[in-house]
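Inverse folding, one chain.
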């Protein structure tokens, strides 16, 4: 009998609440993440998506539940978990190359020789197609190039898990499509697992192997859909019309329920 591979990241019963707050931010979240897959987490504003990502990243402790990284408890920042946000957050006084290398010497990172460090940075910059711009400063980069540099900074850590919080939201439509295609390439080339936080159903349909809908008050998983269509999918959105409508209907129902509860409170 073939044994299923162990998820690289496993969450069971995750919940987050703050002292003195009226309720939890999210609760009861179960999630398995495998290498080579993209999981999109959808939800309206305030559903707890970004808070969930911070917990998965080890940047914030859950109030309840368990979180395992490669079978071991995740209790803080992990060297094989990388996070990218909507703001590239590049340091303006450093070149692109040095921005990509930034963080490799932090205490929680494994010790690297100079040759290993150089190899990681070179591979990451090549992967995102910015070899020609490695000496440029952030002010000289377009929005798309800055996001590529931020992605390269993540890849230099050779992550097992890549967590992305709406990283393409501020980009124009063409650049956004290019970055979506790049993300799929990176996941395949690095055999990493990715969680993409987004509010855009079409982006989730184009990119994700699975779509998770987070909503309610507090946030709960309201539905999970597997997207079994080949990549690339940018031209297949019309074929996903029924799935899009199902997700949108579930999201609207959840929003109406939350607003109704708020009106009665």
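Residues assigned per position:
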């Amino acid at each position: 009998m073939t044994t299923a591979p162990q998820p690289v990241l496993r969450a069971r019963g995750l919940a987050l609440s703050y002292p003195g707050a009226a309720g939890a931010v999210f609760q009861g979240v179960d999630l398995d993440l495998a290498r080579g897959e993209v999981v999109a987490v959808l939800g309206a504003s305030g559903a707890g998506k970004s808070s969930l990502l911070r917990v998965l990243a080890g940047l914030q402790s859950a109030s309840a539940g368990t979180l395992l990284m490669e079978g071991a408890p995740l209790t803080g920042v992990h060297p094989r978990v990388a996070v990218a946000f909507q703001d590239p957050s590049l340091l303006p006084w450093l070149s692109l190359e040095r921005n990509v290398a930034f963080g490799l010497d932090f205490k929680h990172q494994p010790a690297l020789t100079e040759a290993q460090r150089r190899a990681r940075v070179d591979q990451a910059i090549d992967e995102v197609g910015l070899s020609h711009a490695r000496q440029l400063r952030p002010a000289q980069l377009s929005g798309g190039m800055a996001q590529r540099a931020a992605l390269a900074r993540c890849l230099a850590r050779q992550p097992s898990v890549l967590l992305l919080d709406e990283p393409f939201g501020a980009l124009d439509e063409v650049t956004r499509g290019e970055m979506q295609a790049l993300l799929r390439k990176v996941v395949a080339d690095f055999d990493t697992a990715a969680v993409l936080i987004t509010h855009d159903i079409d982006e989730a349909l184009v990119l994700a192997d699975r779509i998770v809908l987070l909503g309610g008050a507090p946030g709960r998983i309201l539905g999970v859909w597997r997207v079994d269509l080949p990549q690339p999918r940018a031209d297949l959105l019309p074929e996903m019309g029924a799935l899009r409508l199902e997700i949108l209907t579930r999201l609207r129902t959840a929003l109406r329920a939350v607003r109704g509860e708020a009106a009665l409170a």
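The chain has a mean pLDDT of 88. Residues 12 and 30 are 4 Å apart (CA to CA).
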